[in-house]
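Follow-up to my earlier ticket, as requested here are the two runs.
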Amino acid sequence: MTVADADAKGRSWIIWAALLALFLGALDALVMTAAMPTIIAELGGLHLYAWTYTTYFLARAVALPIFGKLSDMYSTRMLFLFSIGLFLVASIAAGFSQSMGFLVVTRVFQGIGGGGIFALVYVVLSDVSTPEHRAKTISFASAVWGIASLVGPTLGGFIVTWFSWRWIFFINIPLGLVSFYGIAVHFQEFREKTAGKNLDLLGAFLLSGFILGLLTLIMTGGRELPFLSKPYILIGCTTIISGYWFFRVEMRAENPMLNFNYFKDPSYALGNVLVFFASFAIFSLFAYAPILLQGALSQTPLQVGYAMLSLSLGWSIGSLLAGRKMNWIGQKRAVLIGTVLLVIGTGMTLGFSRTTDITECFVAFLVVGLGMGFVSLTTLLVVQDSVEPANLGVATSFHQFSRTMGGTIGVGLCGGIVTDKLINELTVAGQKLPETLIGMLKESMANLFQQEFQAMIPAGMDAMLQNAVLNGVYLALIIVFAVSVINLGLSLLLPRK
């Protein structure tokens, strides 16, 4: 059977099933945001609040490269079905949770299933696409991310308001079953596999340790764990050792988890670097632009949602445009368009002040989103075209991993900078906040908008707090702009194909 044959025998079913699975995985974290206050009120366990997100994210990040490698060795179809099935079983278990501890455990398994889905969906879409239609087909997947970010918070709020919070997990079941059916019945393998080779178990173990350690350092540094504390230093040393050992093992392995020789190809290396920096920029904006808009520009939550909507909308539109025009404009030109848009959009954010109109924010974020749409889709195609079809799974999953790491490092780095700048500004001004409020800010900048925090702000400090928020987030915007400029320079080095 060929790809052309599949087009006549359920290609649409396969595409929709894959996109639906991706939608569920992307939707999961976003839906929970609106439901968490209700969940905590019923189950308790406030101290585990952050872990409901952290465990899901860590498990997903670890699963991404492993499932990508497995798909090059074994049946992509069976691995995809396993990922969907695990995600659904974990969703059912989460819906029946009677404690926060149990919910956190189920989130680990949801993360593993979600990582498998994210790693394999682009492989499936590539497998069922002819070369001339591959860009257009994969662009639908990029657009799904934007749709999920639009629907997620609203859907979560609706479910919690009219039903039980447990239905944010149960709603996955019918949608997941449809996806499971589409892949089980219609998807067939086309790529040659390397099943005769042994799986690099030591490499998988060391890579998992490195990822877990690195993400823990990024997500906890300066907050849950002080930078110079013994636990932080221990995790840091373990991460470095795991990374070095992983590199040594992979260079000698017969069938490595990650073939470092791929990086000798400028297209492969630059494709991953470009999506890393682009993700650094856009996910940092996703995280800290709302704080700027609400905390410094005095915009309402509705206005903030209106402005942030444009990031997701732009990402979806940019991906679809790039997919439709890829054969005409070419990969290098598409990447250049994306990186130029990122520079223009992030540059516009440097003009934000306390008097900036919300429409200006909308336009700036729309331009950034359009740029990300072009970059995320095109760099994936660049990376896939740089390897043999038999290694498509590893190449695709590492591109997704690069995107994940870029966003994580960006949010973590900018978060530390914003928090430190905010607290220093308030301290230097001689109007230091009460220690209780300082601790809340160190824990999360989002606490700025909690009623408890607002009620404890000393009289006359509102304006000073707004200026401090503006100056703190502005530093993050400068970093985001600088990263975007670097990305534009790197895109010029991409070979023309």
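Run two:
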Amino acid sequence: MDFAIKVGSADKQRSSCIVLGVFESRKLTDAAKNIDIAADGYVSNILRTGDMNGKLGATLLLHNIPAIPSKRILLVGLGQEKEYNSKAFRTAILSAVNALLRTAVSEVGLFLLDIPLKDRDLSWKVSQTAVLASDCLYRFDAPKSKSESELPSLNKVTLYLSDRAHLKIAEVAMAQGVAIAQGMKVAKDLGNLAPNICTPSYLAKHAVDMGKAHKLKVSVLGHKEMEKLKMGALLAVAKGSHQPAKFITLEYKGLGKTEKPIVLVGKGITFDTGGISLKPPAEMDEMKYDMSGAASVLGTLTAVAAMGLPLNVVGIIPTTENMPGGNATKPGDVVTSMSGQTIEILNTDAEGRLILCDALTYAERYNPEAVIDIATLTGACVIALGHVASGLMSNNDQLADELLQAAELSVDRAWRLPLWDDYQDLLKSNFADMANIGGRSAGTISAACFLARFADKYHWAHLDIAGTAWKSGKDKGSTGRPVPLLTQFLISRAMRK
């Protein structure tokens, strides 16, 4: 998909199709009025017939409009003018693109940017359009011998402005939106791969290839190196699998060596059976998505590199399978983490926090400005927040506020949960410094409390993406979240430099 920004009038453009907005009152936008005047009231007459009512998301495709160079016009409903907001804008874009995908249109010109929004600026509209259109066009047919769906004809989207003075701002926003979309595609592609393909070794190879493509410093540690570093918690999870565990780091340097990096730590469980604490069989196939945290780190770094952000960013990915077997870790085992703290493993299905805690300790060596871990960590988070928002916990209010602002701006929502010391008692153990679970109550918070014990030397935040990383049912597939949130956070940080 190619994107472009141009300045021009709707009635002068030669294209396969142009998209114009209509409000529920049948009021035309300025661009639509220009078309209507040039076509001697053709659009107004269509509206008077009642075929297009302007309701939000409604569409009507018109052909061969008199005196108009474009072959087609797609009218898209914007809803009530007084209620036109960012949500309505997103709905209109999605409706328009999805309508075009059912046609033979190869290129389209969108004339929806000049319609004012009370709550968002031009940059937001441009970036969101690129992300939403790319998401609509996403297909994952790689493992299939034959594609079951026709590839869409649409391959170019041009966004039109009326004022040349806004062109530069729009071009920057477009580059950001395209980069975010690229990052989301990386995350979705990795997440959607079958677990026999996307193994820890596969993720390591992807990271190495990505390093070559984007000039990143990449390191991959194997079992011996992790053993030497005393990563006892991570290796305890890996014991039941025949697939070798990997510990991956990627370093992006957009600033000088003296600048502290932002460190992103992604959970990379490429398949989670639960280990000895075996999961029920229903929907276990979806446990291939338990590496979505790792995928989001790789996707975010792809976006960062594409934009050339003036930041230093480090990605850390501890990756393994969690499998049952004769050598697998058992409930009741006590292991020693890289930090030296001991852990009683009461449930082997609480494995994500075990691989993350060693990664969080490893992150100390970078003297980070902030550390954010991303993990499909708890089913409790799905119960609490559903599939709308990721759970956010942090030991630093400013960092948490920045992430929440980025979540709102990117429409990749998150909600902050408490991380009070009161919850730490849930992790008490008679036989080790802590247990790896805290019982049924406050499961998402107790998991974050566990991680907090390994992140007390820097500003840290935890994103639980168990409810947002993928969809189930007929639309099953990776969402690419929270790449938009993380990328927007880093864009905002870069702007402060």
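The only thing I checked on run two: The chain is about 35% helix and 20% strand. Let me know what else you need.
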